[in-house]
Design a protein that fits this description.
alpha+beta; Four Helix Bundle (Hemerythrin (Met), subunit A); 5 domains; Hydrophobic Seed Protein; 907 residues
Length: 907
């Protein structure tokens, strides 16, 4: 029995009994329901508030969960007493007219969150009768009227046992049955039968079923505990994993509390303390989550993380905000839950001969693999002394396991975890240890499993302390889905998959050039180190470069290899920024990028690093359009670095493009073709692919033939995951701005935009668009709406500015993120245009608002490039003044900056 601290503050049994007696004296059984409901609501509300105040004062999580359960118990006990002994009093009940109320599930464990379901079972001696039905119905309806969610079952003992045999969920729920009220002999009889028929002899089967159930649950939620909006209850390492240990322990050892299994030798004192700390922490978080939402809520979403950190006392520090400290504590806690699960499974296997869940494909005549003992099909260590004497073995065991495709025995992982303190300076600088580590990371069949296990056990962070600093380091934004360590390991896994050809279809260029890289280990270590300085004060790329210069010699790298890794870490964002924020048809973009890269080898390494870095951010970040931009930047830069000229801007190149177009339009006569091509300036031919040129020519020809005022064409490109939207219309001031408004109102997201004008006063505006989730925009209904909105906007029937002004702004969970507004104006990035780069919070109509400002200032937009990183949008405009020149007037530049900043700062 759990003792509840100052339980009378929550529910005073004597006082409540007196009040109930007074109600019974005042009201007849058929009149008492309304006053009784009011009384119980007030009583429960009082106890609820007492527990809430305790939570706010820092009461431990498990104490809160027990207190909430205690409060519910008292309500059900007193309610049942009134219903059975007063409302439906039976002076001479038969054997059938009796029942028992038992708690099951989490409520049975005496663990409840503020808005948890109440799971109760009514145990009957025989089949239902009229009296039992009336009592059960009254109690259930009363609890529902109080506002509770009640999970209930009404069963005889035989029915309950039969259902347990058929259903794992029911079997698990009844494992935690707890007597609440009524005929206790019924409860004891069910408990006895459950023990005989369900538990006895079935422990191995139940254990396998629960562990399989856990694994399936993990897979459903992404099979990682390091997501930045984790599920506290169902996620990997969450409360449900602790419950799984509890269920297995109770099934095998018939214990009610986890403290009892410490006596069985399953956990050491230290490990049990970790279990208790994890349970306390997770329950404390869960209570505050429920209080904030006013309902059951198990996801730690962005909008509650900051408030949670403040409620739980995580203050800001110089190097880390309070919310980042809280989330790091969370991730370290769920990591410990994983460790405890392994320890528990190892004990079960060793003591109860439970078969391991995985088997190796290899067989050994010897009982050793490279000096490490084999236990069944898994690699282990002789004893802890072996690790203390030679700590390098804590690296080597992962290398051997990887070499022979063996699992590592949980008992060995437990010993490693307990002896991490011996991985010190001597071990870190040991040439053999570092050689083994590099071989693990560059393993030809994939390093992911070994690296992730090394990280889980703590070896990786101990062997490379700089990496240890980013373990469980959250990146507090909407863009990064995983913690820094998980992102890094995923990037290394992706590098291996690219090299092994697994991603050849998605990344043809990376798959091709990775085999031309001169040093595999340079690439893999650069991926390992690219974010290693995240979370420190300062630019993580610059700080990471310093870390690379320190670590690479330790890893056995030559000065040349060290320099290459350090350069890659320093400039690992360069290709992303150039491809997504600059105009790739501008010769200066290519020359500036290539001059920074300097060599084809660096270019190859940087391309692969960029691809895996983007892919490892999250499952929905990469798309074919980004791949196309990177391929285009790579091919043009490679040509430049191999001694070629950036010749695609000269007259010869324009002539070559027009020749290719002529071949694609054989049905046009020479006069018609020449008349068409003379309508455009040279910039048009240099910025558009041949396929797109053909589509534009046919569209414009058809539009001119029918004298249409405007024509809209949409081309779906599934490979690039983009839709190409082209509008041909009469040119006029503000056309681009109004089109961006129409597109935004249609639910499309603009990724790239180019504005071309013909010599005869027509405009050809080309947009590359996606849907709100970053997928190709191709839904038929949405396409119809898009075309209609564009035509209505061009005709004046739809005025986007008016629509945006009227729209209500709804608060979203992601509004918690703030983006520092920034306007940068650069007259050096392009030879012919002024580049305006804007950093602001993404929202519907964002590009429309920005472009409207430029139109009002009489600034001509030539192209726009948009890159979104979660809540942050980076928008780059290439512009000219009204005379077609760069904007150089200082007053004009200040005016542009001020007006754009007003848009960025608007809420």
């Amino acid at each position: 029995m759990i003792r509840i601290k100052k339980h009378r503050e929550i529910f005073n049994t004597k006082d409540q009994a007196k009040k109930l007696d007074a109600l019974k004296q005042e009201f007849r059984p058929d009149q008492i329901r309304t006053p009784l409901l009011k009384h119980f609501k007030e009583t429960y509300s009082h106890g609820f508030e007492v527990i809430k105040k305790r939570a706010d004062k820092g009461e431990t999580g498990t104490n809160l969960a027990n207190a909430q359960s205690y409060l519910t118990d008292q309500i059900i006990v007193m309610l049942s007493d009134v219903v059975v002994n007063y409302i439906f009093h039976n002076a001479n009940p038969s054997k059938a007219e009796t029942l028992c109320v038992a708690a099951f599930g989490g409520y049975g464990r005496q663990e409840m969150a503020p808005y948890s379901d109440i799971d109760i079972q009514f145990i009957l001696p025989y089949k239902k009768n009229a009296w039992c039905e009336k009592v059960v119905e009254y109690i259930l309806y009363f609890l529902w009227d109080m506002g509770f969610d009640v999970g209930h079952a009404v069963r005889t003992i035989e029915e309950a046992i039969r259902l347990c045999e058929e259903d794992l969920t029911i079997k698990t729920a009844l494992l935690e049955m707890r007597y609440i009220w009524g005929d206790e002999s019924l409860f004891k009889s069910l408990l006895s039968k459950y023990d005989r028929k369900i538990i006895r002899g079935n422990a191995p089967e139940f254990t396998e079923q629960k562990l399989e159930e856990r694994d399936n649950r993990h897979k459903k939620l992404g099979d990682t505990r390091y997501v930045v909006e984790p599920n506290l209850k169902e996620g990997k390492g969450g409360l449900r994993d602790l419950h799984t240990l509890h269920w297995i322990a109770k099934f095998i050892y018939k214990v009610h509390w986890m403290s009892e299994i410490k006596k069985k030798g399953v956990f050491s004192d230290e490990e049990y303390k970790e279990f208790s700390k994890a349970e306390d922490f997770l329950w404390a978080v869960r209570f505050q989550l429920h209080y904030m939402a006013g309902r059951p809520n198990e996801r730690i979403t962005f909008d509650v993380q900051k408030d949670l950190s403040e409620k739980l006392g995580y203050a800001d520090r110089a190097s880390m905000s309070g919310v980042e400290r809280f989330m790091k504590h969370y991730f370290l806690t769920v990591k410990n839950v994983g460790d405890l699960t392994r320890i528990f499974c190892a004990y079960l296997e060793e003591k109860h001969k439970r078969r391991p869940l995985k088997f190796s494909n290899f067989s050994f005549r010897s009982k050793y693999a490279d000096g490490f003992p084999l236990v069944g099909s898994r690699i282990s260590v002789k004893n802890a002394k072996e690790l203390e004497d030679d700590p390098v073995k804590m690296i080597e065991i992962f290398h051997v396991a990887q070499k022979y495709e063996l699992d590592i025995h949980p008992r060995a992982l437990r010993m490693i975890r307990q002896n991490l303190k011996f991985i010190r300076g001597r071990t870190r600088n040991d040439p053999r240890a570092n050689e083994l580590f590099i071989e693990i990371m560059t393993h030809e069949k994939g390093p992911g499993f070994a690296l992730r296990l090394m990280n889980e056990v703590g070896v990786l962070g101990r062997f490379v302390p700089d990496f240890g600093r980013v373990v469980a380091q959250m990146q507090y934004d909407m863009y990064h889905v995983y913690t820094v360590d998980e992102h890094t390991i995923r990037a290394i896994e992706l590098t291996s998959e690219v090299e092994r050809g697994i991603l050849a279809e998605e990344h043809p260029l990376a798959n091709e050039i990775i085999h031309k890289v001169l040093s595999r280990k340079v690439l893999y270590v650069a991926v390992f180190l690219h974010d290693i300085a995240k979370g420190r004060k300062g630019d993580h790329s610059i700080l990471g470069e310093q870390v690379a210069h320190k670590l690479c010699p330790r890893f056995g790298f030559t000065p040349e290899e060290t320099e290459t890794v350090a350069w890659l870490v320093r400039w690992h964002l360069l290709m992303t920024l150039s491809a997504f924020k600059r105009d790739l048809s501008d010769p200066k973009t290519i020359s500036d990028f290539a001059d920074q890269v300097q060599s084809p080898e660096r270019l190859r390494l940087l391309l692969v690093l960029t691809v895996v870095d983007i892919r490892a951010v999250g499952p929905k970040v990469w798309n074919g359009w980004k791949g196309q931009l990177l391929r285009e930047l790579y091919s043009r830069s490679e040509e430049y670095l191999l001694g070629g000229q950036i010749k695609y801007d000269n007259v010869h190149q324009v002539g070559h493009i027009i020749e290719n177009l002529r071949k694609e339009l054989p049905e046009w006569d020479d006069e018609k073709f020449d008349e068409y091509t003379n309508r455009f300036f040279s910039t048009y031919w240099l910025a558009v692919s041949t396929d797109h040129l053909v589509r534009n020519a046919l569209m414009m020809d058809m539009s001119d033939k029918f004298n249409d005022k405007s024509t809209v064409n949409i081309h779906i490109d599934d490979f690039q995951n983009i839709s190409e939207l082209t509008i041909y219309a009469e040119d006029n001031p503000g056309l681009f701005s109004r089109l961006t408004g129409a597109i935004a109102l249609s639910g499309a997201s603009i990724q790239d935009a180019r504005i071309f004008t013909t010599k005869d006063g027509m405009a050809l505006d080309a947009f590359r668009i996606q849907d709100a989730d970053g997928n190709v925009f191709k839904d038929k209904e949405k396409l119809k709406k898009l075309e209609k909105n564009i035509n209505d906007t061009l005709s004046g029937e739809l005025i986007p500015r008016d629509v945006f002004d009227k729209r209500r702004i709804r608060k979203k969970r992601t509004d918690v993120f703030k983006v520092a507004p920034r306007v940068l104006i650069d007259n050096k990035a392009s030879n012919s245009r002024t580049v305006i780069e804007l950093n602001g919070r993404d929202r519907i109509g964002y590009l429309f608002e920005l472009s409207s400002v430029l139109v009002d200032l009489k600034i001509s937009i030539n192209s726009a490039h948009i890159a979104t990183y979660g809540e942050r949008a980076i928008t780059v405009f290439f512009v000219r003044d009204i005379f077609g020149h760069k904007v150089t007037n200082e007053k004009k530049l200040e005016q542009i900056k001020e007006k754009l900043m007003n848009v960025l700062e608007a809420k």
